Structures are given as structure tokens and as C-alpha cells.
Here is the input.
Amino acid sequence: MAIYLDSAKLDEARQVRELGWVYGVTTNPSLMAKAGVEPEVVLKGLAELEFHHVYYQIVSNNLDDMLIEARQVSEIVKSGLILKIAPTQNGFRFVAKHGNEFPCCVTAIFDPAQALVAREAGARCIAVYVNRATKQLGDGLALVGDLAKVLAGSRTEILAASLKSTKEAVDAFLAGAQHITVPFDLLASLSTHPLSTQIIEQFNSDGAGIRLKSR
Ligand code: G3P
Here is the structure.
């Protein structure tokens, strides 16, 4: 299980790196466009932060260019790179052909049939857009459950994305996702609860504990 930041903003990545429990960063072309700097700069900055994994989405469409793009990215992110690949004919061909060299996450999965193909192609994981699926298909969490059944016993894991609340993030795990990726604000709110804050204020006010010898 791992929790990721879904962002291409380096200031956000730097802040979550300090938290110590965020496993990596996931990006996509839209997030890259919002970052305000060139994707090469984003990738270099993320590589310097030494997360366990950095996800980059290939934007080339033909196999030869996809491979060139993958190699260029792997020159920048030398360890922990996972390539997000669109679920197209060429995307699945890329995963089947190059998935051993480049761990791949087939992204934007909206149907268990696509997960079956990703599994057979040897994908390391699939990314499912939970909230978008709920809005457009009816029940994104049920989709995660079906994907988990389809992938049971395989090495292909589920990364749940497009999560809009702490409840949706937790429910995605409960439905069978191994990993979640969430935007910066939601990531911060995962670790807090008003009742925790309230009782900790009480503890701080009562305040009995050992005396520190030195700093
Ligand atoms: O990683 C996928 C995510 O960025 C899409 O989220 O909120 O645009 O559905 P959203």
C-alpha cells in the first residue's frame, strides 16, 4: 500500500517529501500543463527529491516515439520511474513489448475488460479515476471492486486516482485498490480530524510528561 501526491507542482512535492510518509508523485499531461514550468524541469526536480516512485505519462502515440520518450525520461528520472500509458492499441503494445524495461501503469481505466488486457500485457499497475467514474458511469468504487476481482492473483496492482474526499480515498482502499494518489490539499487533510485536534488540545493543556534533559 502506498499514498502518492497527484501533482506536477514542485513546491507541493517538496512539502510532501518533508512529511516522510508519501511514497511518490504521480503526474499526467494536464497536471504538467498546470505546473507552469517545462515537464523536463518538473521531472528533474522530482528526481532530486528521491521519492520511491515518480509517475510520468507518455504523450507520444506511435511505438517508436513512445520508446524514445521513455528513454529520455529515464535519463532524467534514473530510479523509481513508472510510465503511465494510455489504454490504446499502441499503449498496450508498448506495455507488452517494453514493460520489463520500463514498469508501466495503464492509466484512465474505466472498464474491467481494459484491466484484463493490462494484466495480460504485464502492466505493473492500472490507474482508475474513481470520482470521474462515479460521475460518468454511476459508481467508481464498485468499478474498483470489479477491477480488484479481475486482477486478483496477478502482479498488476490498482492505483486509485481522481479522489475528492478522505472518505472516497479510504473507500478506494476498502474496495480493493493497493495505492491511492491524491491532490495536495486532500493529502494534508488525510492526517487530521477535528476530534483528534480537540483531544490533543486537552492533552497539551494538561501537559504532564517527562522533563527534557537537553536539546
Ligand atoms: O491522476 C488523475 C487525476 O489527476 C484526475 O483527477 O480530479 O481531474 O478527475 P480529476
In short: Residues 6, 26, 28, 31, 129, 131-132, 161-162, 181 surround SN-glycerol-3-phosphate (CB under 6 Å). The beta strands are 2-6, 24-26, 53-57, 81-85, 104-109, 125-129, 157-161, 179-182. The CA atoms of residues 56 and 83 lie 5 Å apart. Residues 2-187 form a domain with the TIM Barrel fold (CATH 3.20.20.70).
